[in-house]
Design brief:
alpha/beta; two-stranded antiparallel ribbon; 7 helices; Alpha/beta knot; homodimer; 2 domains
Amino acid sequence: MVKFTGKIFSKKFATTIYGAEQKFATKYSICLYTHVDKPCGINVNSGGKIEIMKIKIVCVGKLKERYWREAIAEYSKRLTRFAKVEIVQVPDEKAPETLSPAQMNQVKATEGERILSKIKDNEYVFVTAIKGKERTSEEFAQKIADLTTYGHSNLTFVIGGSLGTSPAVNQRGDDLLSFGKFTMPHQLMRLVLIEQIYRAFMINSGSPYHK
Amino acid sequence: MVKFTGKIFSKKFATTIYGAEQKFATKYSICLYTHVDKPCGINVNSGGKIEIMKIKIVCVGKLKERYWREAIAEYSKRLTRFAKVEIVQVPDEKAPETLSPAQMNQVKATEGERILSKIKDNEYVFVTAIKGKERTSEEFAQKIADLTTYGHSNLTFVIGGSLGTSPAVNQRGDDLLSFGKFTMPHQLMRLVLIEQIYRAFMINSGSPYHK
């Protein structure tokens, strides 16, 4: 049993604790976050309880082409080394080019309600948005390391439908996350996101990862 | 035969010329850039000669997984509606994590020479680089529209290897192009790039394209 001490160790130290070092960490009640001896990432919440990291991606609409499904399945599989991964798809609304602004807002609101119905109160929510905060991969990794250090074990990432996310979804977001100024198809956004999450965990674990 | 007038028309006008409007454009010697009645994009160079648009992507290393190959083949195929598409792969150098800075520069220089050997003088070269200019999809589309208006028919896009591009390659670049602050695997960069090129042509043609 590992007890949360509230003390924050350097990333380098916190993420290289395993094997013999893990025994040391346990002996000295260090807040640790490791994933070498366990199938999942471990986090210690503020009550001192050990929790498995959970990564949830809530997105709108299905993946049609096989290459999207296979690519995302591959990164999802790799990510299970660090966390329990869940991808939740909610149905999309039809959004032809001819919609009025009011109709577009209605589509976003309907999809937004479906998204919000899949999110619990204890989840830390990133909402992807072009106008969100842009980070380097290292900054994003640091953000995730900080969240886990502070006891967040449920990280949820939202990708809106083709028109984007509703104000209600953005309001629920704890962080608006941008992957650049350009517009991507939502399937590609899913792939970019899951690859970046995987990359963040690889960076935080000090593992080499080919660019 | 369409003669280059040197006059620049609004994007809206220039990209909706087809059918009956194309006859009007031809009659009045308008520099046009269309792809509805032709399999390829048409450009008129500064000498008044009509040229087929050529898009070349020069990249380092092979695509290992099937999903990368299939996804990139799909966008490559879609893009042939607008241009002749060529993807040129040059061999990568081994780049383990243990390389010294001097060795890393050597890897980039060697890969850079291979890249440059595939580029001719008449090509307008975009080099992808995290620290390049970030654009929205609309701004990128406008950039391409401007280049074609000014008679550039050979657009080349370079994606470096895992360590990035050499100074010599960056020097040859007419434009340093960034798709956000985050680091991507080079396979994913290829997919993001080709999707954005396709999107740019779709925007310039006024075609609806699902996000």
